[in-house]
Amino acid sequence: MDEETIEEYCQALGPSVPQDNDLRKQAEAFIIEGMETPGFIAAMLHISSNPDLNRGRKIDISQAAAIQFKNIVETHWKYKDDEYAKEMREDGYKVIIIPDETKTYVKENILTAYINVHSEKVAKQFDFIVRCVTKHGFPDKYEYEFDVKREPLNEIADILFPRLEAITTEICGDNSGQGSRLKILIGHCFYISNQISLCKRYLDPSMLDFIVKFNTSALEAEIDNSLTQPTESIEEIDHRAESFQWKLKKTAMNFLFRTFQKFSNP
């Protein structure tokens, strides 16, 4: 999408945040019209993951775009075609059919965009979007008994995990709060998917070695001095327990303990 169109959406997203009522209504009308325009979702993905677009603006444009992105995915992603949405339209609901190429674009780019997310508020919107896309992308596979039906999980792992592994390589040396948060999310994916039995992907010793090393490096990563100094303050202890750096170590320890406890062969 061209820069001029991106700027038009940025200008509309600012007033969409409740302030001046008339401006908000105008902005919302522009956005609602834009939802049915090819490229709208791609634009929201781009804006929400590009904090540079906030420069010189009073409103967090990235957050506003993330909210619009989340809303359209939550409401319209599930509709496959006009026939599928016919009943809803007959009941008076507005339905947008998101083209398959747009859905493919989101699936291929959302994890990369996630790396550039600049705030927890935007990250929460992305968390919801990923869950929604997964749920509707695998409607008959999203919920199942781990010990009975493993094949759907293996299919998801084959699609998703290569990209997660690539991201872990990209952020390996990033021990900042943002880097730690991403590692925690990826670590949770590795832990949950291999909790009952190993995915087929990780029956390959070299692939299992990869995620073991990822969690080992997370466990060995240095922590900011401010989070390690002795203290007797309950408030400070509670604060440290919520830090991404300590949470990452907890996630890594849980994975390593579970993996060696259940699957090692001493």
UniProtKB/TrEMBL annotation:
It comes from Euplotes crassus. GO terms for biological process: protein import into nucleus. InterPro entries: ARM-like, ARM-type_fold, Importin-beta_N. This is Importin N-terminal domain-containing protein. Its main location: nucleus. Keywords: Nucleus, Transport. Residues 27-116 form the Importin N-terminal domain. Signal peptide: none annotated. PROSITE patterns: IMPORTIN_B_NT (PS50166). GO terms for molecular function: small GTPase binding. It is found in: Nucleus. Pfam families: IBN_N (PF03810). One of its GO terms (cellular component) is cytosol. The keyword Transferase does not apply.
